[in-house]
Specification:
Elements (H helix, E strand, L loop, with lengths): L4 H11 L3 H5 L7 E5 L4 E2 H15 L2 E11 L3 E12 L2 E14 L4 E8 L2 H8 L6
Parallel strand pairs: 1-6
Antiparallel strand pairs: 1-2, 3-4, 4-5, 5-6
Length: 128
C-alpha cells in the first residue's frame, strides 16, 4: 500500500516549511495532538502549531524509519530533523494518523515524542 495522498501532501508541506499547506491537509474538526499536550484543531490550529518551528528552521526533514499504511490509518516511526542556524536537531517520533479517503483529508494526527528529549535538544535553538 502506498502512502495516502493527504498524508503525503502533509509531509511534503512540512518539509517545504509551509505551515499553511500542512494545515490545509486537515479536516475542519481534525485534532492534531503532540501527546501529552492538548490537541489543536483544524487547519488553522495545525498551521499555528507548526509555524514557529517551520519558520525558525532552515531545513526540515521527517525521515520515515518504519511505516504501516492503510487507506484510513497510518503508523509512522520517524526521526524529525530540523536545521536551525546551521545545526541539525534530530528527535525520534511516532505518529498515528487517521484519514478520510473520500474527503482526502487527515481526520486525526497523534504524535508521540519524548518531550524531555525534544526540549533538551531544541531549547537552545529557541532561546533568545
Amino acid at each position: 500500500m502506498s502512502m495516502p495522498a493527504a498524508l503525503a501532501r502533509f509531509l511534503d508541506a512540512v518539509e517545504a516549511r509551509d505551515a499553511r499547506a500542512a494545515g490545509a491537509c486537515f479536516a475542519d474538526d481534525a485534532p492534531y495532538a503532540n501527546v501529552p499536550h492538548p490537541p489543536v484543531v483544524g487547519p488553522d490550529g495545525v498551521r499555528e502549531m507548526l509555524a514557529p518551528v517551520l519558520d525558525r528552521s532552515e531545513q526540515v526533514r521527517w525521515e520515515i524509519v518504519t511505516s504501516a499504511l492503510s487507506e484510513e490509518r497510518c503508523f509512522l516511526e520517524r526521526v524529525d530533523r530540523f536545521v536551525i542556524d546551521g545545526r541539525e536537531y534530530a528527535v525520534a517520533c511516532t505518529a498515528v494518523v487517521e484519514i478520510d479517503p473520500a474527503a482526502d483529508r487527515i481526520t486525526a494526527f497523534r504524535d508521540y515524542v519524548d518531550l524531555g528529549e525534544w526540549r533538551a535538544r531544541l531549547a537552545e535553538a529557541f532561546t533568545p
